[in-house]
Amino acid sequence: MKRFLALILALGMLLSLAACGADTDTTQAEGTQGSASAAGEESSGGEAADTSDIYGSVAVQQGGTFVIGASGDPQSFNPDYLSDDYLWPIAQNMFNRLVKLTTEDTVIPDLAESYEFSEDGMTLTFHLREGVKWHDGVDFTSADVKWTYDTIIAESWNKSTSLESVESIECPDDNTVVFNLKTPDVTIISKLGWYGLFILPQHLYEGQDPATCEAATTNPVGTGPFKFESYQTGVGVTLVKNEDYWGDEPNPDELIFAIYSDQDSMYQAFLNGEIDVMGSSVPVANVGDLDGNDAYRTFTQLAQNRTYITFNFSDPDFSKVEVRKAIELAVDREGIFTRVGGAGAAAEYYVSPLQTDYVDESVRIPDRNVEEARALLESAGYTLDADGFYLHATLDGFESGNFSDIAQIVKANLAEAGIDLTINMMEYSAWGDKVKVNQNFSITMLAGYQGPDISGLAGRIQSDGSSNFGGYSNARVDELFALSNVETDVATRAEEYSEIQQIMADEVPMVFLLENGGEYAFPNDILGTPYDLPELAASSEYTYLARTAE
Asked: CB-based contacts of 72: which residues, under 8 Å, 6+ apart?
């Protein structure tokens, strides 16, 4: 059991995120604050840092309005119901989780002050903060936690698989929540700090449609540092300071998330001073432009966030492993990185290189080989048509960051191997309906955070994974994920993930293109950003934003 708890501590120190949250279909180092202590003892989940002098010796202004760039309109204001990257940075300022992840993906307390596991690892008890209120003045209690997680599980909401080890949840009192587990789970603490597991107000959601009720559309209510004020489609979302916030008093009076149609226009607005903080990284083409500019400071970070293409396994062409392997051999990963990779890296392995305990360096993505790709297609029975192609297909994607540029490079790469690829780029919501909801596609492109634990990969290739839109399924892979989730020995767990990587190499459920990284820029007269205070802030929580005093 001590090894079990020690591993949880290690996992809490090896996490990684970026703003999009999270499980972005597009979105970020080793921490020092862990999650559990010796068996049966209580853990704070990471001690909150001293906030008495967070701006150092610099005098700052109190209050004010801060404008933050946003990449699109939220699909709703229910942060758990859907995978919605546009809501993610807004939600982190309105809602709370039991624990949360900093920009360096350290687990720190949120609504839970502390927690402990039982000796056998089968019970996990959270001790909640007292005196927390919802934005409408109603008391927050353990019943809200139980209702939220019970609903996520029962209704199979977006991140229900993160709670698959939970047998039942009990509330012995208003400030205590007890998880009864089916098996010990070395991943659960880090997952609870991740995507789609914000605590919702039971009194506003129970008995209502989670997608269309008032709390999900026109009047969202959380427990976070900022409260919902207004939303105008295509323009932005306004949040105001929560005067009754249970945590450190927020400095800004108001946050405005201004919506921009593309990253380039957001960046230009940032340079023009129209927005105070970019809600995304600097566009790839502009990485390094601000070096040496005394008006700005920048932070560069490689993310556990990977761009890849994946397939519909019910499609007669892409159900063939030869076709998937041919595509993997045809794409020019180094060329993609050189042209649009920015602060990232070319993909080399089947798991993120930041997962240093689990990368099997003997299982590498093969180097580009166009002739071998063509030979594989011919071995699968394909012949060249009058246009010189073995195969015609459409890649359905959505407009985000460098996706369009990458898609065009992939199109040119595959043409050399005799595959004619039509690119169909859509708005995110249209893509979601076509690909995520209806599985009406042959090939698609995704990116996203593949953490916070190595088991985050399961969401993309486990049979019931929340981002496994193409229906890939391998019983042995599912078994290995289940085994690794209860395994307390890192070396044994690494062996299980080594086998998963080998299966991925053999079956190619996805073709990895790019390890995403970002350069994040801020004006020098604005302090308290999440990157300035990684030990305090979640990736998009702006509690401490402040302008320097003139």
From this structure: 85, 86, 259, 428
Helix (H) or strand (E) run with residue 166 in it: strand 166-173
Neighbouring CB atoms inside 10 A of 316's CB total 9
Q: Measuring CA to CA, which residue among 146, 148, 93 is closest to residue 544? A: 93
**pLDDT tens sequence across 158-176:** 888 889 899 999 999 999 9
Q: Which amino acid is at 328?
A: E
Q: Which residues contact 126 (CB under 8 A, 6 or more apart)?
A: 98, 112, 114, 115, 145, 176, 177, 178, 179
d(CA 277, CA 291): 17
Three-state secondary structure call for residue 499: helix
Which pLDDT value is given to residue 39?
31
Mean pLDDT rounded to a whole number for the chain: 88
Cβ burial, residue 273 (10 Å; 0-12/13-18/19+): exposed
- Strand-pair partners of 66: 255
Distance CA 196, CA 210 (A): 13
Going from the C-alpha of 336 to that of each of 1, 174, 234, 345, 412, the distances in angstroms are 45, 53, 31, 9, 11
CA 304 to chain centre: 9
Task: Determine the 3-state secondary structure of 33 from DSSP.
Answer: coil
Helix (H, G, I), strand (E, B) or coil at 364: strand
* Eight-state DSSP code of residue 433: I
Closest CA to 188 of 221, 155, 153: 153
Alpha helical stretches, state H, 185-300: 188-192, 202-205, 214-217, 263-271
End-to-end C-alpha distance for the chain, whole angstroms? 55
Say if strands 391-398 and 419-426 run parallel, antiparallel, or are unpaired: parallel
Domain range list for the chain: 302-517
Q: What's the CA gap between 149 and 452, in Å, rounded? A: 19
302-308-309 Cα angle (round to 5): 170
Q: What single DSSP character describes residue 347?
A: -
CA distances from 30 to 34, 78, 304, 307 (A): 11, 31, 12, 22
Q: Nearest 5°: phi and psi at 544?
A: -105, 5
> Does domain 302-517 sit in CATH 3.10.105.10?
yes
Predicted TM-score (pTM) of the model is 0.77
- The residue written with tokens 């940075």 in the block is 89
Each residue's pLDDT tens digit, 27-62:
222 222 223 322 333 444 444 444 557 888 899 999
Length of the chain: 550
DSSP line for 378-427? HHTT----TTS-SEEEEEEEE--TTHHHHHHHHHHHHHHTTEEEEEEEE-
Map residue 334 onto helix, strand or coil.
helix
**What is the torsional sign of CA 316, 320, 324, 329?**
negative
